Amino acid sequence: MPVLTVILIIWLLIINAVAFAMFGIDKRRARNKAWRLSERALFLPAILGGSLGALCGMHLFRHKTKHWYFRYGLPLLLLIHLGLGLWLAGVIR
What we know:
By secondary structure, the protein is an all-alpha fold. The chain has helices at about 5-30, 40-60, 70, 75-90.
C-alpha cells in the first residue's frame, strides 16, 4: 500500500475521532452550563475530513440536530468527501 494512502487513512481515522469527541464534549458542556465550543470549531474537523465522525456524534449525542446548517451541512460534507474519495480512487472520472 502506498505511503500516502496509509497517511490518508490514519488522518481520516484521527480527524473523525476528534470530530466525534468534540460533539460529545460540547454536549456535556451544554448540560453542565459550562464554556462551550463554537459552532465554527465543531465544523472545522468535519470540513477537514471528519464529516462522518461529526455526523455520528451529532446523532448519537443528539447535539445540534435542530440547526439546519448542521442537519444539512454535515451530510452534504459527507457526500462531498465520499465523492472526492471515489475520484481519488479512480472510480469516478
